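Exercise 7.
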Amino acid sequence: MKLTRVTYTLKQSKLTIETDSPSSIKLAIQSLKRNRELLEEYIRKNPEFLTSFEPLEVRDAPKIVNIMAEAASAAGVGPMAAVAGALADLTVDAMLVEAKVAVVENGGEISANSDTPIVVGLLAGTSQLSGKIGFHLKPNDFPIGIGTSSGTVGHAISFGEADAATIIADNAALADAAATAVGNVVQGEDYEKSLQKGLETAETIRGVRGSLIIRGEYAGMVGKLPQLVKIEGEAWKSLKNVQDYLPPKIKFI
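Solution. The predicted structure, written as tokens, is:
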């Protein structure tokens, strides 16, 4: 199946869209514009929604705000921790009117629904695994949300020190918020203990399927994750089980 991939930037939102239906791209852009406008209008009237690091109750709010607030409440973080994932989710929903494959990456957060397998890569700062492993997503994995928080790369706020705290969930809004919560607790001089704390935190968040955390030469996993694969080349052309590839210095706990 031939897929079309495009990028689109609107203010802070930087989308990579992949789909089997080029006509759905217009729907994706319309969704992004509309939901950003609704969110910005809500924030003008409720500025604490932008700045709070704690969950907030919302009333008479548009769908984008409700989605963010619900995800933030589940993860115990501020609602803006879910903004990129929520926008990605709503964009995918809009695309599915015409598309069978809809994948949206927004600032590192991924929302996807597809009737065919796809592979997504994982960036993890300066870790040896960065850009070299990914998830092989199969039809029974969809719909899916993948969120990643990093204390060593990117502009998003993280109080932790993980190279990558990645969350798998049913939607990207929850994955985004949960990744922030998990990433925040991965800190301290004892790398192994910090990863364990992060994994334990992931297990407490309702709706999280699984988590993969990378910090330096340590990595840890918990829950049900999609198949991990090795990534080679620019188009994910060569894939095999990641266990056959991992650099010897990476220690899974």
